[in-house]
Design goal:
Blueprint (H helix, E strand, L loop, with lengths): L3 H27 L2
């Protein structure tokens, strides 16, 4: 459990990246 803080940071980063991917996908679908 020593890497809990690091794991949380990684999870947050992955969540942000997933959200950005979805937003870009929606933007691409809306701007055509």
């Amino acid at each position: 459990m020593l890497n809990v803080q690091i794991d949380e940071d990684v999870v947050k980063k992955l969540c942000v990246e997933e959200i950005q991917k979805k937003v870009k996908k929606y933007d691409a679908e809306l701007t055509f």
